[in-house]
Amino acid sequence: MNLKPSLARLKRKIAAFSDTRGAVSVEFVLWVPVFVLILAITVDATILFKTQANLWTVARDAGRQMSTGLYSNSQAEDYAAGQFASWGITGTATASQTNDTVTMQISVPVAAVTPFRIVNAFTDGNIIAVVTQRKEPQ
């Protein structure tokens, strides 16, 4: 009995199953959505942190103008609203004063800022910046 032809046939059949020409394509297709998701989360988080830093700057500037007596509450609110409106987002600005302090609070919805809205699943929805400063003597 000659086993060589049957072994050769068996080797050919096994070789047909071990063709790896499409293996890289399959792995690529499986991993691409994961990398795209990581990139989208990174972009959303970066924009959120940048927006919060910008809101702190606007609140600080408006509070400073109020503490020196140059802006009233409504002028500070209008200034802040104009700043983030120029970025293309809507939000609320609230200014208040006591005898010796001024407070500026700015709130912007997360949904108005993030392009991919992935972060919305992890947060209640607002970026808030609050600055309190002492009034300067006049």
Features:
Pantoate--beta-alanine Ligase, Chain: A,domain 2; 3 strands; three-stranded antiparallel β-sheet; 138 residues; single chain; 53% helix; 3 helices; alpha+beta
Describe this protein's structure:
The protein has a single domain (25-134), classed as Pantoate--beta-alanine Ligase, Chain: A,domain 2 (2-Layer Sandwich), CATH 3.30.1300. The model has no long low-confidence stretch (mean pLDDT 87). It has helices at 4-17, 23-67, 73-86, and strands spanning 92-97, 101-109, 126-134. It has 3 helices and 3 strands. By secondary structure, it is α+β, with helices and mostly antiparallel strands. A 3-stranded antiparallel sheet has the order 1-2-3. The longest helix has 45 residues, at 23-67.
Provide the fold topology.
Elements: H1 4-17, H2 23-67, H3 73-86, E1 92-97, E2 101-109, E3 126-134
Antiparallel strand pairs: 1-2, 2-3
Low-confidence stretches: none
Corresponding CATH architecture: 2-Layer Sandwich
C-alpha Rg, in Å?
A: 30 Å
- Output mean pLDDT: 87
* Number of E strands: 3
How many domains make up the 3D coordinates?
A: 1
Largest sheet geometry: 3 strands, antiparallel
Category from helices, strands and their pairing: alpha+beta
Percent of residues in beta strands: 15-25%
Q: Sum up the overall morphology in one term.
A: rod-shaped
- State the helicity in percent bands: 40-55%
Strand order of the largest sheet: 1-2-3
In the CATH scheme, the class would be: Alpha Beta
CATH fold-level label: Pantoate--beta-alanine Ligase, Chain: A,domain 2
Order of helices and strands: HHHEEE
End-to-end CA span: 113 Å
Number of helices: 3
